[in-house]
Amino acid sequence: MDSGDSSMSKVFHFSSGNPRIEETRGVMHLFCNEQPSFPSQLPVGRKPLLCVLSVPNHMTYADFCQFCGSFVQHMLEMRIVRNDGMEDCYSILIRFDEQKAADTFHKHFSGRKFSSLEDETCNVFFAADVHYTGSIERTQSIPASSTEQPFCPVCLERLDQDTSGILTTICNHSFHCSCISKWTDSSCPVCRYCQQQPGNSTCSICQSPENLWMCVICGFVGCGRYKEAHAIRHWKETQHCYALELETRRVWDYSGDNYVHRLIQSKTDGKLVELNHHCHHDNDGCCSCECATDPGFSETLVNSKVEAIVNEYNELLTSQLENQKMYFESLLQGVEEETDRDIKEAVEKALCQNPRLMKLKVRLDKCIEEKKFLDDINDNLTRNKEIWEAKISEIEEREKRKLKMKDEKIQELEEQLATLMASIETENAVQEMP
Q: How far apart are CA 308 and CA 306, in angstroms?
């Protein structure tokens, strides 16, 4: 690039790839858009190569493909890179099949918001030149058979730029644009490397970023004994005896004062592997024993070990959870007792400091005693009322029975009187007869 071109371009340093495995670095030269007199004028000597700067990390690959819309079919290759000094965003290098499509894309999306609910805008620049290992410009001359990843890991079809666009993720894995557009996660489908990298861990108390240990019970992060020993202090306060060293992924047992880990997480693919696994038949390597010659036996042995380790960890976690349950219940009970005691002391102290409250308390106690006396009297009267109501009902029943007996007696006497009168009349009639 000559000096005339460099005066109208900006230089951006970028990188790509998984930093734990392999990181590719490079420099991109972008045309400036600072032309106030001719805002729609496109730079001279441009190529069908664009760069979208400062794409927010929360936008996944599928979101960006959906944002581009119909222009995806004109894109031969998209490469995700990260700019130095920009941790919350990434950039995308896009190569189009023709210059007209690149110009239309720049005109349509430059300065446009990614979403109506967000403030981030799409910053589109024409790329004057890009220097990095395996760049987009250089992949045109490389045959498909010599590329590192000639097939798409999703559809297992050959990665051909002429038939479909190719998207290379930030970890340098390539896919078809149509295949990656269906992947709604922000991680890579192959290695699960996520473009949204978590922040650096620090001690929860002293904010130290070195020699950190994380409690496997509650997740507390504290510094080790070579710093301020906040992790050991956390163990003494909570009795959480298992801590994970964040740098080496090893588990330390404070009560046993030794390492108790069996599995660690691989930094390459994130899988769990056994730490320091060596064959017990040969200290120099597993080349002469039956483990190397019999893969079925080796697989069975590894599966049995993994199952035993899982059971061991489950038992350890179960016992620790039970102990922690009892520990926190005792702490809760102690806090409740202390709270009740503090409340009682505060009330007594407030009463002693205020004579008026003391007098009111005396009157309140007297009123409470009177209320209690009146309640007792009310209970006695209620019980007496029930007794007298029972007696009255019994007397009423008895009177009803007496009235019924009297009515029956009167009715019986009337019947006898009627019979007697009838006999007397009959006797008089007989005497009057001649």
A: 5
Helix (H) or strand (E) holding 91: strand 89-96
Give pairs for 355-360: CB < 8 Å, separation 24+: none
For residue range 323-366, list pLDDT tens digits in order.
778 888 888 999 999 999 999 888 877 777 777 777 888 888 99
CATH number of 9-33+45-133+151-181: 3.30.70.330
Per domain, the residue ranges of the chain are 9-33+45-133+151-181, 212-262
Alpha-carbon distances, residue 339 vs 86, 343, 345, 353 (angstroms): 50, 6, 10, 21
User: Domain 212-262 maps to which CATH number in 3.30.40.10, 2.60.40.1180, 2.60.40.1120, 3.40.47.10?
Assistant: 3.30.40.10
Against a cut of 0.85, is the pTM above it? no
Angstrom distance (rounded) from CA 78 to CA 53: 13
pLDDT tens digits along 112-149 = 888 877 788 888 888 888 886 654 443 333 333 334 54
Place of tokens 């007098």: 359
